[in-house]
Amino acid sequence: MPAVIRVRRPIGAKLVGIISVLLLLSLGAITLLVSVMVSADVRITAEDNNFNVNLRSSVEAERILEAIRSETLLLLDTLDVLEPYPDLARTAAALFFKRNPDLAAVVPADGDGASHINEAFFAANGLDSEGLGSLIQAGDGSGELLLRNAAPVFGLPLLTLFLPRQDGTRLVLFSPESLAGTFGSGTSLSFLVNDRGDLLIHPDDSLVMAGTNMASSPFIKLMRESGEGSLQTLYTGEDGKEYLGAFRKLSLANAAVITSAEYGVIFEGVSATTRRNLYLSGAVLCIAVLFIWFFSKTISAPLKSLAAAAERIKGGEFEQKLEAKGKDEISLLTERFVEMGHGLAERERLRDSFGRFTNKTIAEQAMRGELTLGGETKQVTIFFSDIRSFTAISEKLEPAEVVEFLNDYMTRMVDCVDKTSGVVDKFIGDAVMAVWGAPLSAGSSAQDAFNCVKAALLMRAALHQFNQGRGGDKKPRIRIGCGINTGDVVAGQIGSSQRMEYTVIGDAVNLASRTEALNKPLGTDILITENTYALIGNQLITEEMPPITVKGKEKPVRMFAVVNLRPAQGAVPKPATLAELRQILGIPAPDLGKVNVNAEEQKYKIQGD
User: Fold this and answer.
1) What is the phi/psi pair of residue 118, to 5°?
2) Where are the domains of the chain?
3) Which of 305, 421, 433, 447 is close enough to 425 for a disulfide, judged by CB 3.0 to 4.6 Å?
């Protein structure tokens, strides 16, 4: 089952996050910059436009009002001259109203004197001249040139101009239609107010008809209180919205033209452009995210394959079939990864093959270059084993059968050594030499010694299983003898720079070898010396053999036959005595008094009582 690679922060997510942040920052910065710059341009343009509209409207209003004032004064002067000639005076008045159809009437403000009425105007608009009386009664006695709203009186957009003369003030009633034409509507809205804040002209006629007074408006207050003839500024209206307002006071009639533009409307185009830019940025971001996500797959998928391959290599599967697609760095990495796997596989095969000729621990240290010529003194436990009567057994077998027999036997014995952390030093024909404590120790000399004895007991059990079903010349049943000794040795690489062998040498090794040879005359299968017994004797069931005098040693060496491991309290081991062991293994009990061990070399001499 392929390994499942779980990554907390996938490359795809990182790329998407990084690119998204970069896009958001760049697009946001561009949008903000454009908005700020465009907003600044729009504001300047709007201010210029608003001010120019206000200027044009006020100039035109002044011109029209001045024309009404001049024409009316000319009429009055003409009528004064023609006063002796009533018919000519009426003709002059008629011609005046014909030439100025927007003028409805010219009447004295105090009602005392001649009134001149444009009957055609009243008739055409369905007005009653009686309304003039209301205007006269509401007249302003200040004697100034003023404008008042007459629309509420007549129900029609009409203005009254209070025109002072030496002989009294005249009320000039006229239609503001030509004047209103100069007050266009749009982004910038213009209207006319008088000195009291009455709305005189406005694109919304209903406000004029209602006689709306705007004196409470913040901007009208500013205009009335300001000593400036014209001004433009931002203000907040009564509705809470921001407006760009401009005013210009007229040079006559104490009136002013107001032009205002809602600030939000001015920048509506900028806001719309900003929104479109944001929508475009969102679309670009989505497309970029999709593109980056699919692109990241071309990176993350090969890397996941490499990670999965690494997990398999970690588990020992060195040969990996990975295909490098493309010519980028990941493809190069994939190729090198496959080559690395081949190299590791070759190294593992070499280590395995090398380990077959020597111990794997030594092989690994040698491959790491940790083993060099020379040695060090260590306390180790040395083990020797030998097959009894091997020469006689091999003479009855063909060479191939001997090899097959030995391979089967050695495999079982070496497995016991490996299981107890021992190192097979060498094979000497049918004999096995192994060491515990070099090159690596289990932690202490006592533990190394115990592991060695445990290996020997495992060999006893393995040999018992090996002998099951065997018998006869071609499949002989065999017995072995094991000798174990603990002592100081020189451990290291022995040989030359071209040919080296890791081994241990010293008197302790010789004693272990000679101890193994004593098993046959003593009727045992596992013998340990007093050196090993001193370390772990309390963990074993043993029987002491007669001490042995070893050539070259002054004092006899005590020997102990290993029967079994000492059991837990209350347990009954089997075998529990050497006699039981001999019975199980089929070893006859020797007469130790008649035994002559290795008489030719006189290496040993059994000490009698």
Assistant:
1) -85, 90
2) 12-268, 373-606
3) 433
Element containing residue 383 per DSSP (H, E) = strand 374-387
Helix (H, G, I), strand (E, B) or coil at 333: helix
Tokens, residue 546: 């007669």
Distance CA 184, CA 190 (A): 7
As a whole number of angstroms, the distance between CA 185 and CA 177 comes to 15
Query: What dotted CATH number matches 373-606?
Result: 3.30.70.1230
The encoded tokens of residue 5 equal: 């690679």
How many Å apart are CA 93 and CA 87, to the nearest integer? 10
Q: How many CB atoms lie within 10 A of CB 345?
A: 16
pLDDT band at 51 (very low <50, low <70, confident <90, very high): confident
Minimal CA–CA distance to 324: which of 333, 315, 313, 312? 333
Q: What is the pLDDT of residue 137?
A: 64
pLDDT at site 542: 93
Alpha helices in 241-374 (DSSP H): 263-266, 268-314, 329-357, 360-367
Q: Residue 268 pLDDT more than 80?
A: no
- Yes or no: say if 157 and 163 are a contact pair by the CB < 8 Å rule: no
- CA-wise closest residue to 264 among 286, 243, 292, 238: 243
Structure tokens that stand for 382 in this block: 């040395």
> With contact defined as beta carbons under 8 Å apart, do 118 and 105 qualify?
yes
- List phi, psi (to 5°) of 598: 50, 60
* Statement: the pTM of the whole predicted model exceeds 0.90: no
Interval 272-286 mean pLDDT? 77
Radius of gyration of the chain (CA): 62
